Amino acid sequence: MHLVIANATAYENAVASYETEVYVKGYTAVQKKNILIHFSNLIFPVESNPKETVFEMVSNFRYDAPNNYRHNIEAMNSNRPVRTAKQKEVLSFINMNIYSPTIYNKGIIMPVAREAFRYYNFSLENVEDTAGIRIYTIRFTPKQWSQKLLDGHLYIVDGSWTIDRAEMNGHSTLSEFTLRMRFNRDRRYFLLPEEANLKVRFHAVGNKLANYYHATYRYKSVTWIEENNEPPQRKPLDQTRYFSLSSDTIPVIHDTAYWQAKRNTGLTPDELQVYHLTPQQPVTNTNNFTPYLKITERLTNTMNLDYKTTRVKYSGLLNPFQLGYSGNNGFTYHQRLRISKTFDRDRQLRFRPELGYLFKRRQLFFKLAGDWEYLPERQGILSLTAANDNPSYPAGVIQRIGQQLQDSSFLTTENLHNKFRHYYIELRNNIELANGLKLAAGLSFHRRIPAEKNKHAFHDFTPAVGLTYTPRQYYWMDGYRKEYLYSRYPTFSIEVVQAIPGTGRNAGNYGRVEADMHQSIRIGLSQRFNYHLSGGGYFNRKALYFADFRYFTRHYFPESWNDSFGGVFYQLPGIHYNISDSYAQCHLMFESPLLLFQLIKTRHVRYVVSEHLYFSQLWTPDLPCYTELGYGVGSDLFNAGLFAGFERGHYHSIGVKFTLELFH
Fold first, then answer.
1. Cα 153 to the chain's mean position, in Å?
2. What single string gives the DSSP state of each residue in 497-562?
3. End-to-end CA distance of the chain, in Å?
4. Range list of β-strands (E), 45-119
5. Within a 10 A sphere around the Cβ of 276, how many other Cβ atoms?
6. Bond preceding residue 81 cis, omega within 30 of 0
7. For the segment 245-266, what is each residue's pLDDT rounded down to a tens digit?
C-alpha cells in the first residue's frame, strides 16, 4: 500500500487533458414515505415532496488541467423535468479524481492520501491473476468511525500500482453512499474511469429515498503531462475551476434505438415502470391533509425563488431551525430575507433585512441592509445599513461608577440606569486595490436615546477608513466575481475612526484605532488551527463617548459552525463590551474530527463531523484578566458548545451555545 500511495501523488496530476463521451443514467426511488415527505428538503438535498424519477443523459466532456471542465449535454430523456441542480450533482460525480487525497470539496479523506496510514487500517485479502495481470485485493477500514472516512476495497495492479477497481462506502448523519468504479486497462487511458456506479440512500422520520447513478465513458483523446526537469514554480494564485455547462437547448430524445446504442446495460424493470409515468398522469391522492401540509410547508420551510436574474430566499416564518440558544442570551429566534438582482458582468443589487428576538432579555433587534456590488472582479461593494444595537452605557459614566463594577449584582440584573438605546446608519464602501489588499471607507451616524425620560440623546458622526492585507491570497473567479479562498499567511487589518464634533447636540469628539490579525492553518488533511489577535483603544477623548469597537463586540444570534463559532466570547458579561476605552484579546481554536470522541468505541460517533477546542483571553482596564475555555461538537444537523468563563483566575460562569445547521 505504501507503493500505491507514493504513486498516487504522481498519478493525481498526470493527465493534461482528455475528451470523452459520457452516458449517465439516474434513478430516484421513494422507498418509504409519510406525510413528512413534504418537508424532506429540510433534511435531504432533494426537492420538496420528491417523486420517482428516471433520466438518461449523454454529454461530451472535456477536461484541461488543472481546473477547466466543459460539459456539453447532447441528449436527455426523463419521465419528468430534471432540475439544473440535479444535473450539476451528476456532473460533480463524473468529475471525481480517484487519486486525489480528498474528494467532495475536501470533505472526505481518500485511502490513497499521503497520510492515509494515520486514518486507515489496510489488509491484503486476495491475490488473483486476470488476463495476465496480477491484482491485489486490499481491504481498508477507518481507524475511527467518521464522516470524513470511508471503508471498502481497492483492487491494485501489480507493477504499475494503479487502481483497477474501487469499492467505497461512506456516510453522513442521515445518509449513506456506495461508490464503485472500474478503470481502463487500456494503456492509453489507464488512469481514467471506464464505469462508475453511485448509490445514495437518505433516511429520516420514517422516509427513505435512494438515488442511483450509473456512468460509462468512451474516450476520444487523452494527453499526458510531460516530464519537466525545471525547478518547481510557485502555485498560481488564481485557482479558478472553469466549469461550463451548456444545457440551454438540450434535445429531448425519446428514440429507444438511440438510447439502446448508448447503454452498456439495459434498464431494470423498476426503471422501465417509472419511465412510463409522466408528470401529466393523474395521481389519486386520498390525503385530506394535503392543503394544510402545503400551508405548513410554506410557513416552516426555507423558501428559494428564482426568476431569471432575480433570487429570493426567506428563512420561513415558523422555521424551528432558526432557533438558537446561548447561556447569556437564552433562546433566540432569527428571521432572514435575501433578495438579489443580477445585472450584466455579474454586478448585483442585494437587499438583506434581518429580525431577531432575545427571549431572555425580551429584546428585538432589526437590521435593514443593502449592497450594490458595482465591480465584482475587484470586490467593489457599496453597502448601506440601518439597525439597532446593544443598549449601552457611556464609557465616562461607567468609569465614575467605579467600584460598582465589582458588585456581581450590578452586572447580572441588567441595571437600566444610564442605559441608552442605540440606533445607527452606516454607509460603507469596500474595494480591492491589489490582490489581497482591500480598502474600506465609511460614514456612520449613531443616535443613542436614554432609557430615562428628560435626558438628552447623544449623537456620533464617525468617518472611518481601514485597510486589510493578506499576502499571497489565493482566489477564484466565479464569472466576473472574485472570491477569496485561502492563504498560507495571516490577514492583517487596521481601522481608524475620528468622530466629528458639532454635528448634533451632545456630539462625540474622539478618535479610535483598532488592529486585527487572524489566520486559519490547516494541519494535515482534516485538522485546522485558527487564531485571532486584536486590540484597540480610544484617543483624544474630548467629550462623553460610547465604547463601540468593531472587532470587540457582542454576538447575539448563534451563527453556523464555520462562521463565528470561535473568535468571540460566549460567557463575557455584556457590560464589558461598552465600558472599556481599550482592549486586547486572543482567540485560539483547534478543530479535528478525532478528539475526545475517539475514546468512545461505538459507531454512533460517526454522526459527529468535527470537534473543537477553544481558548480565549481578554484584557481591559476594568477586567485585566478574563479567560474562556470551551469544547464543541458539530454535525450536519447541529452544533453545540460548552464554555466556561474565569475572571482573574476565578471561576465566573458556565454556559452552552446551540444552533441547528440545516439552513446555514
1. 30
2. EE--TTSSTTB---EEEEEEEEEEEEETTTEEEEEEEEEEEEES--S------SSS----S---TT
3. 39
4. 53-64, 68-78, 102-103, 108-109
5. 9
6. no
7. 555 567 788 888 899 899 988 8
What lies within 8 Å, CB to CB, of 20 at 6+ separation is 60, 61, 62, 192, 217, 218, 219, 220
600 three-state secondary structure: coil
Q: Say if residues 607 and 635 touch (Cβ distance below 8 Å).
A: yes
DSSP category for residue 418: T
Can you give the C-alpha Rg of the chain in angstroms? Answer: 29
pLDDT digits (tens, 9 = 90+) for 187-231: 888 899 999 999 988 877 778 888 899 999 999 999 988 765 556
3-state DSSP assignment of residue 67: coil
C-beta of residue 593 within 8 angstroms of C-beta of residue 609: yes
C-alpha to C-alpha distance for 362 and 246, rounded to whole angstroms: 52
Q: Check: CB of residue 82 under 8 Å from CB of residue 54.
A: no
Helix and strand totals (H; E) in the chain = 9, 34
Q: Cell for 307?
A: 426568476
Contact 158, 134 (CB under 8 A): yes
| Sign of the C-alpha dihedral computed for residues 263, 265, 269 and 271 taken in this order | negative
Say if residues 99 and 8 touch (Cβ distance below 8 Å): yes
Give the C-alpha separation, 139 to 124, whole Å: 6
pTM assigned to the model: 0.77
DSSP state, residue 267: P
Torsion of CA 516, 520, 521, 524, to 10 degrees: 170
- C-alpha 95/C-alpha 652 separation (Å) is 53
458, amino acid identity? F
∠ Cα 476 480 485 (to 5°): 20
**Up-side HSE of residue 558: CA atoms within 13 Å toward CB?**
28
- Please give the Cα distance from 317 to 319 (Å, whole number): 6
Domain boundaries, the chain: 2-222+239-275, 552-664
| Other CB atoms within 10 Å distance of the CB of residue 2 | 10
Angle at 65 between CA 61 and CA 68, to 5 degrees: 50
Q: E strands within 250-322? A: 303-307, 310-314
Q: What single-letter amino acid sits at 243?
A: F
Of 633, 588, 642, 631, whose CA–CA distance to 609 is shortest? 633
Element (H, E) at 125: strand 120-130
Instruction: Return the minimum-mean-pLDDT range out of 35-49, 66-80, 358-372.
Output: 35-49
CB neighbour list of residue 204: distance below 8 Å, 6 or more residues apart:
43, 44, 174
| Residue 467 cell numbers, joined | 485597510
Whether 393 shows a pLDDT value over 50: the answer reads yes
Q: How many residues does the chain have?
A: 664
Most confidently modeled range among 191-205, 290-304, 423-437: 423-437
